[in-house]
Amino acid sequence: MACTNPKKVCIVGSGNWGSAIAKIVGNNAAQLKNLDDRVTMYVYEEIVDGKKLTEIINETHENVKYLPGHKLPPNVVAVPDVVEAAKDADILIFVVPHQFIRTLCSTLLGKIKPNAIALSLIKGFDRAEGGGIDLISHIITRHLQIPCSVLMGANLAGEVADEKFCETTIGCKDILAGPLLRDVIQTSYFRVVVVDDEDTVEVCGALKNIVACGAGFVDGLGLGDNTKAAVIRLGLMEMVKFVDVFYPGGKLSTFFESCGVADLITTCYGGRNRKVSEAFVKTGKSIKELEDEMLNGQKLQGPYTAEEVNYMLKNKGMEDKFPLFTAIHKICTGLLKPSDFIDCIRNHPEHMDTKSYDYQSSQKSYHRSSSKL
Amino acid sequence: MACTNPKKVCIVGSGNWGSAIAKIVGNNAAQLKNLDDRVTMYVYEEIVDGKKLTEIINETHENVKYLPGHKLPPNVVAVPDVVEAAKDADILIFVVPHQFIRTLCSTLLGKIKPNAIALSLIKGFDRAEGGGIDLISHIITRHLQIPCSVLMGANLAGEVADEKFCETTIGCKDILAGPLLRDVIQTSYFRVVVVDDEDTVEVCGALKNIVACGAGFVDGLGLGDNTKAAVIRLGLMEMVKFVDVFYPGGKLSTFFESCGVADLITTCYGGRNRKVSEAFVKTGKSIKELEDEMLNGQKLQGPYTAEEVNYMLKNKGMEDKFPLFTAIHKICTGLLKPSDFIDCIRNHPEHMDTKSYDYQSSQKSYHRSSSKL
């Protein structure tokens, strides 16, 4: 990828996170020679105080609805038509709510540059036909016929807009695209590590929400800091095993990145999944009631993810290898009581026998030594 | 190690943690055929309400001074003389404050069974001659001439005595001793994973306290959840690198055990290092003043560990490879201000280039792809 033609970037999405990213990308594009100054941002048109949102953004350089109080660089241009915004882009950054991704991709198919690359910032996944997890980046690649990398990490849109120091992980298989994407995204306060392990990065972003429900249950049951730490750790180990089973080729080291351990920690100590799950235990209300009460009816990701993961585990007859994920699903759906939670993980596969690991490249095999005396 | 003669266990130490462990070991010894019922516990004799502590324990089966409110099994026998307590033991569990270990070992040398094995529960380390870290298990092995395994994890004596669910890690090289030690220690609420990576397990227990100081600085500076998660993650990566440099042969997977990520999390969200470091930022007082004020004059482990680690890094000219450990040391000693902390880690080695890891057995090598366009 030669530096002759500066790359054009389009941000598809303009909510809280999209706008925070636009602020960063716009500044980087203005400074870096290998990026075209003009950054387009697809904005779903709305009327705000009698005026078009795209006009407000282009005149005042502020997304007054979704990121008020922060100036966007003037080289970021709000565009109300997604094809118009994306058609000349070399890099498409997707940051819309996941339910819109298929429609957007259908609209864009055949209308974008054939060598464009995508970067998905969309946490979550779509339900595969019949059940199970369909990764957003896979959907984008299938529907748009371009490679799609991912960005996931312990990030909060408001904190990033406030320029608070944090890290993020880009999962990118392409050895040249990775550093390019890092240049587009990185700042002195938003530090990027690129790994080539795309699926692992993306799956972490989905599965951590299940573990956060477990952390919330522990908080609701009043079980103490070290019980919570054990639940978080066992959850992490089930994330590792899940990737090993369903997305083979994943690397253990990727779980040490921001998308892994850092985002898991932050989600288990803050965030809505922990909070609602704690309330679930303390109030006895259903998840649905709590979604209505605490989230304005929005769907809580953790229980939804636990359900689709359970579908995948059932299909492989592997529920017993994932007792934490399975217990959380059963508690959310009322098959078990929260007070059953710890009993489900007392004899976790993690606690069986002595472990010694062989890591050859990205493969993990467990050698169980004969442990009986 | 045949099952013909039941193994005798001696617990060297009887404080809060030692007594909580004695409760567990006593119960296991009474139930398991391969363990002798009688478990001795070396108790430093004191007079409590006019009576000898060993007598109180042996009559009431309660360590009224160090673990009040919990019954010890009657087969645990308090012994005021350490040689008497240890001389017939096959397994010696060390759980005394680390400053006493050398003296105790000198007293025991030549007085214990030649084939005895040791298990150290002692978090911390001793200062090596001149400076740097001398692991407690290494001191025990040097002074007692017996192999010494370690037990470290996200554990709090009070919570374990209350039978709250948690995990712990045993680091044991010996393929038969590992499962034996697990049988001695494990219960339905105290779940043990055995790994063969002894030094890594022990080093984690020491280094996490440095990272906890960093977490405390972030809290004191009011920097937000994701900044804290980034600091914890970068601290973990420096722990990994430290082991790689100073205790080669360590395994990445061991950092996923309770002794690694779980204990780190719990220490960075609770614990005295975080608390005092937060106060350090908010009050402007020195570490010494805060030790006197908040810890009754006890020494805070984090700054002390940071100092000895810094000694080791300086000797290898590697301070720049460990910017977080180095910054924490400099802040504790007043060379830098807390507000300098984040600037020190903006360009962490973690953020340089694209990472791809090759893991062949326990070796880690970083292959840096050409990232410049």
Automatic annotation (TrEMBL), chains A, B:
Primary localization class, coarse: cytoplasm
UniProt keyword Lipid biosynthesis present: no
Residues that bind NAD(+): 13-18, 100, 157, 272, 299, 301
Gene Ontology MF terms in the entry: glycerol-3-phosphate dehydrogenase (NAD+) activity; NAD binding; protein homodimerization activity
Domain (Glycerol-3-phosphate dehydrogenase NAD-dependent C-terminal): residue spans on this chain: 197-342
Keywords: Cytoplasm, NAD, Oxidoreductase
Pathway the protein acts in: Lipid metabolism; Phospholipid metabolism; alpha-glycerophosphate cycle
Location of the active site: 208 (proton acceptor)
GO biological process, one term: glycerol-3-phosphate catabolic process
EC number in record: 1.1.1.8
Domain of life: Eukaryota
InterPro entries linked: 6-PGluconate_DH-like_C_sf (IPR008927), 6PGD_dom2 (IPR013328), G3P_DH_NAD-dep (IPR006168), G3P_DH_NAD-dep_C (IPR006109), G3P_DH_NAD-dep_euk (IPR017751), G3P_DH_NAD-dep_N (IPR011128), NAD(P)-bd_dom_sf (IPR036291)
Catalytic activity: sn-glycerol 3-phosphate + NAD(+) = dihydroxyacetone phosphate + NADH + H(+)
Annotated localization: Cytoplasm
Glycerol-3-phosphate dehydrogenase NAD-dependent N-terminal domain: residues covered: 8-174
Keyword field contains Cytoplasm: yes
Record PANTHER family: GLYCEROL-3-PHOSPHATE DEHYDROGENASE (PTHR11728), GLYCEROL-3-PHOSPHATE DEHYDROGENASE [NAD(+)]-RELATED (PTHR11728:SF8)
Record text on subunit structure and interactions: Homodimer.
Protein name (Swiss-Prot/TrEMBL): Glycerol-3-phosphate dehydrogenase [NAD(+)]
